[in-house]
Amino acid sequence: MREEGLAPPRGAVGPGPSGAPALTASAARAHARSVVDARWNRAAREEDVIDLLLVVSELVTNALRHGGGVAGFETTPVTDGIRVSVHDHSDEAPAVVPGPDPGRAGHRVGGYGWPLVVRLAREIVIDRLPTGGKTISVLLPIRTTGRPD
């Protein structure tokens, strides 16, 4: 199940580049949550869902603040979690997070968002697009509670 060409749910604010409503962090979180609920039938561990929602928020917010806006958003359930891809209009990659503890005072580059993504996500891939911009894709593990729903 791949969620390409996602139309933002109600609550998205402001016009996007094509005149369509722009994707907001809130709309992206709601969509990611609905994909997890559909795939794992509400049996996903809540701490994993919280991590997913934090990472989705940070990636979408970073695209809005630093990437010239969200050019695309995809969620793809996979065997061990959910892959999230956020496309933006900037060729600039996030700053590398130095050291084993990216949150330590005095060692941060920029804000708290990217170090949070690095800490919570797996398989982080940054691809520059031939037409300009980039895609940041991450895997967020989703474990189940073991209870049917």
UniProtKB/TrEMBL annotation:
The keyword Transferase applies. Residues 32-136 form the Histidine kinase/HSP90-like ATPase domain. It comes from Streptomyces asoensis. Residues 1-12 have a biased composition (Low complexity). The keyword ATP-binding does not apply. Residues 1-25 are annotated as: Disordered. CDD domains: HATPase_RsbW-like. InterPro entries: Anti-sigma-factor_SerPK, HATPase_C_sf, HATPase_dom. PANTHER family: ANTI-SIGMA-F FACTOR RSBW, ANTI-SIGMA-F FACTOR RSBW-RELATED. Keywords: Kinase, Serine/threonine-protein kinase, Transferase. This is Histidine kinase/HSP90-like ATPase domain-containing protein. It comes from the Bacteria.
